[in-house]
Amino acid sequence: MGMIMNKTKKVGKIKKSGYTISFDIMAYIFLTLLAAVCILPFVLIISGSFTENSTILREGYSILPKKISLDAYRLILGNPTDMINAYKVTIFVTAVGTGVGLLMTTLTAYVLSRKEFKYRNRISFIIYFTTIFGGGLIPWYITISKVLHLHGTLTALWLPGIISSYNIILMRTFIKGSVPDEMTEAAKIDGAGHIRIFAKIVLPILGPALATIGLFLALGYWNNWISSSLFINDTSKYMLQFYLYNMLNRAQAIRDLALTSGVILEVPTESTKLAMTVIATGPIILLYPFLQKYFVSGITVGAVKG
Amino acid sequence: MKKGIEKIKAAKDGGYSYMERLYQGKKLGIWISLAVSLITTLLFLLTKVIKIENTAQLSEVLGLDLQEGGFSTSYSTFNMLSFVHKSGLGAQGLFAMILFAITIITIVLNISYLIKAQKFSSRKSNIKIYEAGQYAMVFNILLSLLVILFGIYSNKILGLVNIFSHSVLLYLIIVISIAGFVVIKRMEAPERKLYKELGFFKELRKNWVLFMLLLPTILFFAINNYLPMVGIYFAFEKFNFRDGLWSSPFVMFDNFEYIWKADLLKLMKNTVLYNLVFIILGHIFKIFIAILISQLTCKWFKRLNQTLIFMPHFVSYVILNVIVYNLLTYETGAVNTFLTTFGADRIDFYNTPGYWPFIIVFFDLWKGVGYGSVVYLAAILGIDKTFYEAAEVDGANVFQQIRYITLPLLKPTFIILVLFSLGNIMRGQFDLFYQIVGNNGLLFNATDIFDTYVYRLTMTNPLNNGLGTAAGLFQSLFGFVVILLTNYIVKRKNEDYALF
């Protein structure tokens, strides 16, 4: 009896080989270094934004603020009109663009997933063709701003981005993968039309997919600076990232801001740039950990079927 | 009744069944339409369909001497462009360009019909062949009408009468094409009934809801993507604001020549090389990271780690600009501060082109590798655990398991992803380059790619429309060829993964 109990005890222990241990150590070290490299720049920026400007100019950026000062934030928040405008515009464009884009993308993907639609391969090709050949930046710019007369409007910021070939193909893969044919067949036999099938059967199943593609769209809009640079000249209509870009490139912009808020004699250009950066990217950095799984599922489904 | 018996008798005596006679009739129809295709193709290729009636008057109007200078009195749709080039009549340029393009399409359609018709059979549905034939015939008619229209238009813009005219053969083409179209249509109808394949309009009526749902998207692509393609014409003219797109002087390939001589090779080299390095290094890192993560068992570490390495993906490139500046500035950059604390000299990054390829590659990897490893992680998690268990029983250690199981099984994913990325090798990452390098002219030789070049050309001087579009066209064309090639290669390996 004693011998048997001994044997059971040994089987219960998991013995790790030397190789595995060394591999694990290497893995932990490398991944920790990688994570450090990934977030180090952010640490520098945040710390710099809280540092006194003259300290930055004298001693450079560092991981911990050498001399804490809230001047930069005071400057920006003292006259936040422009920044709040940028936020408003960005939120509006992101919301509208994501909403419209999601609707159109999903409808298109639905149609393209229907087997009874004889032209789906041809239409898929027409859609895909736009990714491999195009007229180029200039003709597109002229189409949007001169032909459609959208120059200077907010519409020019969200309209061109609502549909992308990649999103359509991704959504179509989602639909094909999660909506079983038997369901739609049964519904058709029961006399349901396409719109009803879409609304009552496909859409409910598609929840995670909607979240994923919605987030892709939203991230694209939030980080977009090119549209503002091409189509907008009115500073009150700049989107957030372009507002930041503008400020980075024009030290004058910061001095102007300082003048209007009447705060400080010596303008803290460097720390203000960093503070603006923190404000411009804060929401995304704070939100994305909670939404991670949607992004992950999107990239895996997309890659598997391509 | 008598008539009926007689008919059957006649059929039997004839030795041919009804089906066979039908087949013979169809064959005749096909031969007729093929003849039409062949004739029209040869006519469009070889004859000069555009004529100039009164060269003297035209000389006066243009202020050129048409007798010399290599002008002729008749042109085909192909060399009409050379006339426009020499005469400097910009207004005709766009029309001539469209004629040229449609001629090519027409000829391609006719030839493809000639080829497809070889597969004509009495057993299967020939509807696709009929459709090809109908497209060819329609384009024959379309092209002829356009040439006639061209003559009228040219006369109108010169304010004269009867200078430009067309060859009589065009009328012949129109007539035989109509005949060919009718013949094909008549052969098509019974087959459509037989194989229950509806024509376009019937299909439309049956599934009209689906078409309606699709309409906004089609409109979007038509306006946002296909309409700008007309703007390709910018590349062929010397743009000025007064004349605009339609009438600026036509210079044919001058813009392309300029770009070729000036910057094209450098742009191609930069774009391609950077992309190659991004792709290869990127995928290697992603696989490496994915393998490491997949082997670890500590859950909280994995989750925290993933969240942290995802972070670079979510920030915009403008932020990246701040980061790079933050790190590399001469006076205050973190890297330089780090160096000086160890007594080393500062490095002037922004004035030294040599460092920048490495800098750009580093930041591209920084931004993409954490997030991109997820694909490979998913692939690894999809590998059957029994492989590893069997290997452990055989005494393989971790390194051996990775080398002999994980890596080989990841190879297909790796190859497919790399091939896809290669397809886009001509598309640079505009955001990345523009934000990091900005307008620092010193660095352009080492870091300029197609996308930034075109953007800069246009933004600095709108008159550069032609050059910018020409560069963009180079990029699109090269990219298109590369994609066709890579798709062909992927198809050979594994048909499922091919794009089309």
Overview of the structural elements:
The complex is a heterodimer of chains A (306) and B (500). With 306 residues, chain A is mainly α. Chain A has two domains: 60 residues; 170 residues, MetI-like fold (Orthogonal Bundle), CATH 1.10.3720.10. Chain A is 76% helix and 0% strand. In chain A, helix 14 crosses helix 15. Chain A is globular. Chain A starts with a helix and ends with a helix. The radius of gyration of chain B is 32 Å and the shape is flat. With 500 residues, chain B is mostly helical. Chain B has a three-stranded antiparallel beta sheet with strand order 2-1-3. In chain B, helix 17 crosses helix 21. Chain B has three domains: 181 residues, no CATH class; 47 residues, no CATH class; 235 residues, MetI-like (MetI-like fold). The longest helix of chain B has 42 residues. Helices cover 73% and strands 2% of the residues of chain B. At the A-B interface, helix 2, helix 3, helix 5, helix 6 and helix 7 of A face helix 9, helix 11, helix 12, helix 13 and helix 14 of B.
Question: Which helices and strands appear, and what pairs or packs with what?
Answer:
The complex is a heterodimer of chains A (306) and B (500).
Chain A: H1 2-12, H2 18-49, H3 53-59, H4 71-78, H5 81-113, H6 120-132, H7 137-147, H8 155-158, H9 165-178, H10 181-189, H11 194-205, H12 207-222, H13 226-231, H14 240-249, H15 251-261, H16 269-305
Chain B: H1 2-14, H2 18-46, E1 50-52, H3 55-62, E2 74-75, H4 80-87, H5 90-116, H6 127-158, E3 164-166, H7 169-195, H8 200-206, H9 208-226, H10 244-247, H11 254-295, H12 299-314, H13 317-328, H14 334-341, H15 356-381, H16 385-393, H17 398-423, H18 430-437, H19 444-447, H20 450-460, H21 465-493
Antiparallel strand pairs in B: 1-2, 1-3
